[in-house]
Amino acid sequence: MNQFKDWGFSTDWWQGKKGEYWVLGQAILSLGFVLLPVYTPTNFQLLAEQNQLIIWAGTLVFGTIAAVLLIGGGLHLGENLTPLPHPKQHSQLVTTGIYGIIRHPLYGGVVFLAIAYGFWQWSLAHLIGAVLLFVFFNFKANREEIWLENKFSDYGDYQSRVKKLIPWLY
């Protein structure tokens, strides 16, 4: 229970003042992704049978990107880490390490992990699910960035230099 308090949750969490509903939405969407059935259209299946290398390469590339983003993001955030989009009261802005390449590496990492899983299962349903995760995390990051701009005066400069969810691209 103390961990929730350390993350910034309070007894009035149900009011959603720190983005608690974003965390709930993320949990529901993640569970939905895991429960998606593997769906591979016939043409998609024929492509896989002809070139198994696509599946393994996609899984390896996207899985590696996901691991770098998730591990780097968690390590560099340190004590600032919270599932809430609202920054912790005594947090500091992190702009070094992986945060010098991407503003939201944990969100991006989850999306890349979902893409890797879609390749591994060769599932169109999971690749579409990864797109939905991307859209969700983009909106969550937008809300988080409003709070970050209010808390950190130099966030706007950082925001203009570093991409949001996909390193060097977006």
Structure notes:
- This protein is mainly α and about 170 residues long.
- It is built from seven helices and no strands.
- It has helices at about 1-5, 20-35, 40-50, 50-75, 105-120, 125-150, 155-160.
- α2 (about 20-35) runs antiparallel to α6.
Topology:
Blueprint: H1 2-7, H2 20-35, H3 42-50, H4 52-77, H5 105-121, H6 124-151, H7 155-161
Helix pairs in contact: 2-6, 3-4, 4-5, 5-6
The main sheet comes to:
none
Evaluate the radius of gyration. 18 Å
Total number of β-strand segments?
Answer: 0
- The percentage of residues in β strands lies in under 5%
DSSP helix fraction: 55-70%
> Helices and strands: which structural class?
mainly alpha
Overall pLDDT: 89
List unreliable stretches of 5+ residues: none
Q: Work out the helix count.
A: 7
